[in-house]
Design a protein that fits this description.
With 99 residues, the protein is mainly β. It has one domain (10-97). It is 8% helix and 30% strand. The chain has one helix and six strands. Strands 1, 2, 3, 4, 5 and 6 form a six-stranded antiparallel sheet that branches. The model has no long low-confidence stretch (mean pLDDT 93).
């Protein structure tokens, strides 16, 4: 399998991404805080054939909840809410963070 490439550098976006990947994740999730709220950025494989599903976008941002505290965060997707961003284009992702 081809190595996952993110398609952007950390300096391209104005938030600090923290790896939130667990062994059973099919794609790479990272959490970040913006406006005091937690979010998850999901990065799917650049090659569609390696994704869990053909209809998943390359990049998605979902609302998240912290079941821990600020010192020891335990970040999980808030499944009661829909994704707030979905795109296959990294330029859209970078623009979203700068809007």
């Amino acid at each position: 399998m081809e190595e996952l490439k993110f398609g952007f550098n950390s300096h391209d976006i104005p938030v600090r991404l923290v790896n939130n990947t667990s062994p059973n994740d099919a794609c790479a999730p990272f959490y970040f805080r913006q406006g005091g709220e937690y979010y998850l950025l999901w990065v799917e494989h650049q090659n569609v054939e390696y994704r869990e599903s053909d209809n998943l976008p390359r990049y998605a941002i979902s609302c998240a909840i912290n079941e821990g505290d600020d010192e020891n965060p335990e970040i999980y997707s808030d499944t009661s809410k829909n994704d707030i961003f979905r795109s296959d284009d990294v330029k859209d992702l970078i623009a979203y963070f700068h809007s």
